[in-house]
């Protein structure tokens, strides 16, 4: 299954989008689009705008088909819920054996997300953010992680002693940096390279 790309040309982007809406019979919010300039005519005096359009419904169907094929390959019935928020696509999977889908420490779930992202990117050029979870496993893990990081930040506030954390991925480091902005006298910074990169929770006196 492929995601079809529709291309429209007009003098302006708005005109091209309007043309797309009319021909595809969809609203602007129901599509993803990218614009490019097209130069034509003698010495490129005539300029047009080319708009490449993907229907959100087509992308959702593609993802559901991916999950359906995954279900067959794993010999495991899988239900799929998809929520679209702007450029973010949230996918929630459910099965009779969520443990198989999640895998040890979420590795199977992460592998499925990576494969799905790559599959979508191979079909469309529009940059989408795809987030996949299994029965809210990732959301629960993130909640617990956030809770533990808040405890550590409160400890640094109290003791004024820095804490160096274990190496972690970029997503977790970003979560910590964002959390730190909510705590007085707390700053965070990352050190190290690649898989050894870690975060330090640092106590910082208020400037007089």
How many discrete domains?
3
Can you identify the CATH superfamily of the largest domain? Answer: K homology (KH) domain
The CATH level-2 architecture of the largest domain is identified as 2-Layer Sandwich
Number of helices: 6
Class inferred from helices and paired strands: alpha+beta
What is the radius of gyration computed over CA atoms, rounded to a whole number of angstroms? 23 Å
| Biggest sheet architecture | 3 strands, antiparallel
Q: Averaged pLDDT, please?
A: 91
CATH topology of the largest domain: GMP Synthetase, Chain A, domain 3
Strand order in the largest sheet: 1-3-2
Tell me the helix content. 40-55%
Approximately what portion of the residues adopt beta-strand conformation?
Answer: 25-35%
Q: What is the total tally of β strands?
A: 9
CATH class of the largest domain: Alpha Beta
Listing every helix as H and every strand as E from the N terminus to the C terminus, the arrangement reads EHEEHEEHHEHEHEE
Which residues form runs of ≥5 with pLDDT under 50?
none
What features would you highlight for this structure?
208 residues; alpha+beta; GMP Synthetase, Chain A, domain 3; Ribosomal Protein S8, Chain: A, domain 1; 3 domains; three-stranded antiparallel beta sheet; three-stranded mixed beta sheet
